[in-house]
C-alpha cells in the first residue's frame, strides 16, 4: 500500500485519468466538468491534460447529455457522464432507465452500454429539498444498472476503475461530504492511502470495517463514518460490527447474513428515505435468510419528508452518529 494520502475526489480523478490514458474511447461530459473542473472536484485537471474533445462541458439539459452518453456507449465508447446532483435524474428518467438501463436487454444483447453515470448525493450543507437527496434505493430498485457507493478514497479509486471497465451501465454515487472539499469539511476517515498503480474492487463485495460480537450495523457512503464513530463511542458497553456495503447492485447479502448470524442483532443505517428503500431491503433479505438467528432490528434513515433548507431542521432529519448509538442501545440488554 502506498503512503500517498488522497481525498476521495482526487482518488476518483486518479482512476479516471488513468483510464483515459489507457483507452482513447473513455471521455467525460457533464455540466461544469471542463473549465470549472466539477463543482465537487470530480474532474480536477482532466481538461488541462486531455483537452475539450474528451472533457466536455454540456448545456443544462440532463436529458440531452445522458442520452448522448447512451448513444456513445452503444457506439463502442466508454463515457463518464456526470449528473451534477442525483436529484436531477427525474428530468432524464427516460434516458436513464428506459435507455441506459434497458437497451442491452431490449436489443437481445446486440448492444452494450458501458457507461458510468457519476452523480453527487447527500445533504448536510443546507441545499434544500432539490439538491440534498441520496436516492440510492431508486436506482437500485430499477433493473439494469449497477449501483456503486464508495466511502473512502481507496474504495473510490478501485470502484471507479471497475465501473469504467464494466460493459454494463454503472451508477457511481459519491457523497459530497466525503470529497474533501475546502468549503465542506469531511469527517475523519474518507482520506486514505491510495496506491499510484491501478487496481479494481469487485462489485458485490462488502467490507467489514470493524469486527464485533453484539450488534451488526450495515451502512454505506457517509454513514460508514457515522457508524464507526458510534461504534467507538459504544466500545466497552456494546461490541459493534460495522459493514460497508460499497455496492448496492450487486449486493453482498452473504456477508451481512453471516454477521447477523454471529451477532443476532441488526441496525441498518442510510441517508435515503426510510420507506421502500435500502433499510427495508436489507432487513427483508436478512429475515429471509437468517430469521431464526435474528433477535432484533432497527432502521436509521431519513424520514419521509422533503429535506429542509434551515440548518436546525436539516440536522433534525439527517441521521447522525447519535441516532446510530440510540438504535444500537435499543437492541442491547
UniProtKB/TrEMBL annotation:
Transmembrane segments: none annotated. One of its GO terms (biological process) is sulfur compound biosynthetic process. Residues 6-181 form the Transketolase-like pyrimidine-binding domain. Gene3D superfamilies: 3.40.50.920, 3.40.50.970. Its cofactor is thiamine diphosphate. SMART domains: Transket_pyr. The keyword Oxidoreductase applies. Pfam families: Transket_pyr, Transketolase_C. This is Pyruvate dehydrogenase subunit beta. It comes from Halanaeroarchaeum sulfurireducens.
Amino acid at each position: 500500500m502506498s503512503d500517498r494520502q488522497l481525498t476521495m475526489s482526487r482518488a476518483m480523478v486518479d482512476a479516471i485519468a488513468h483510464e483515459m490514458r489507457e483507452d482513447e474511447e473513455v471521455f467525460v461530459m457533464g455540466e461544469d466538468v471542463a473549465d470549472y473542473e466539477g463543482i465537487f472536484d470530480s474532474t480536477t485537471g482532466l481538461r488541462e491534460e486531455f483537452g475539450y474533445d474528451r472533457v466536455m462541458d454540456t448545456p443544462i439539459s440532463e436529458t440531452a447529455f445522458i442520452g448522448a452518453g447512451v448513444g456513445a456507449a452503444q457506439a463502442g465508447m466508454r463515457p463518464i457522464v456526470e449528473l451534477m446532483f442525483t436529484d436531477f435524474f427525474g428530468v432524464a428518467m427516460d434516458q436513464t432507465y428506459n435507455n441506459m438501463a434497458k437497451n442491452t436487454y431490449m436489443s437481445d444483447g446486440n448492444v452494450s452500454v458501458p457507461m458510468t453515470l457519476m452523480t453527487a448525493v447527500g445533504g448536510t450543507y443546507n441545499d434544500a429539498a432539490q439538491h440534498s437527496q441520496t436516492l440510492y434505493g431508486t436506482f437500485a430498485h430499477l433493473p439494469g444498472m449497477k449501483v456503486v457507493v464508495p466511502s473512502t478514497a481507496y474504495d473510490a479509486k478501485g470502484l471507479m476503475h471497475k465501473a469504467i471497465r464494466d460493459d454494463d451501465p454503472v451508477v457511481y454515487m459519491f457523497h459530497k461530504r466525503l470529497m474533501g472539499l475546502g468549503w465542506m469539511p469531511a469527517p475523519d476517515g474518507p482520506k486514505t492511502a491510495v496506491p499510484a498503480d491501478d487496481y479494481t474492487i469487485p462489485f458485490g463485495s462488502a467490507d467489514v470495517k470493524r469486527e464485533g460480537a453484539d450488534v451488526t450495523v450495515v451502512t454505506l457512503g457517509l454513514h460508514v463514518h457515522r457508524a464507526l464513530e458510534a461504534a467507538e463511542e459504544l466500545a466497552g458497553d456494546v461490541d459493534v460490527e460495522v459493514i460497508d456495503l460499497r455496492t448496492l447492485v450487486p449486493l453482498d447479502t452473504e456477508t451481512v447474513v453471516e454477521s447477523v448470524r454471529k451477532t443476532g442483532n441488526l441496525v441498518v443505517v442510510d441517508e435515503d428515505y426510510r420507506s421502500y428503500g435500502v433499510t427495508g431491503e436489507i432487513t427483508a433479505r436478512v429475515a429471509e435468510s437468517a430469521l431464526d438467528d435474528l433477535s432484533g432490528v432497527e432502521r436509521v434513515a431519513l424520514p419521509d419528508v422533503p429535506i429542509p433548507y434551515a440548518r436546525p431542521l436539516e440536522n433534525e432529519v439527517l441521521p447522525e452518529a447519535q441516532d446510530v448509538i440510540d438504535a444500537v442501545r435499543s437492541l442491547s440488554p
